[in-house]
Design goal:
Length: about 140
């Protein structure tokens, strides 16, 4: 069913700006990311968010890379709003970026927005030429 009169949200529009042409990583609009105040900052919890729907483009071939992205973090005062995270990750869809750079960029952007106590991003990229690639990057607040 097609929803002809459906209006896109501003976050959805920002995420979809990469549709139709190839973009560079720095063109991803991080203002898509929204936060929620964490009401229990004295409580050290671990939040783990996972998606199997991450895609980006190989810088050499332009072919799509698919990955499971796992975000684990211990919040300080902020939580990520999940719909905004979905749109942020969607924005990588037509971005030419190495797997390792994608994981580093996601970590950098999320640390900037959330200022967590700890965070780890893992990207498990699907097989290409019989080789899989699993990339992890950690952040520990000083």
């Amino acid at each position: 069913m097609v929803y002809k009169n459906r209006k896109s949200s501003p976050a959805e529009e920002k995420a979809k700006k990469t549709a139709g042409r190839v973009f560079e990583p720095e063109e991803i609009d991080t203002t898509i990311l929204k936060i929620i105040p964490y009401e229990y900052p004295e409580s050290r919890i671990t939040s783990e968010l996972t998606t199997d729907e991450f895609t980006c483009l190989c810088p050499f071939s332009g072919l799509p890379d698919f990955a499971r992205i796992t975000i684990r973090y211990i919040p300080a005062k902020k939580l990520i709003e999940l719909k905004s995270l979905k749109y942020y990750l969607y924005a990588f869809r037509n971005v030419r970026i190495y797997n390792e750079h994608a994981v580093n960029k996601i970590l950098k952007d999320l640390v900037e927005v959330l200022d967590p106590r700890e965070m780890e991003i893992t990207g498990e990229f699907t097989s290409r030429g019989g080789i899989t690639n699993k990339v992890s990057k950690k952040y520990l607040k000083a």
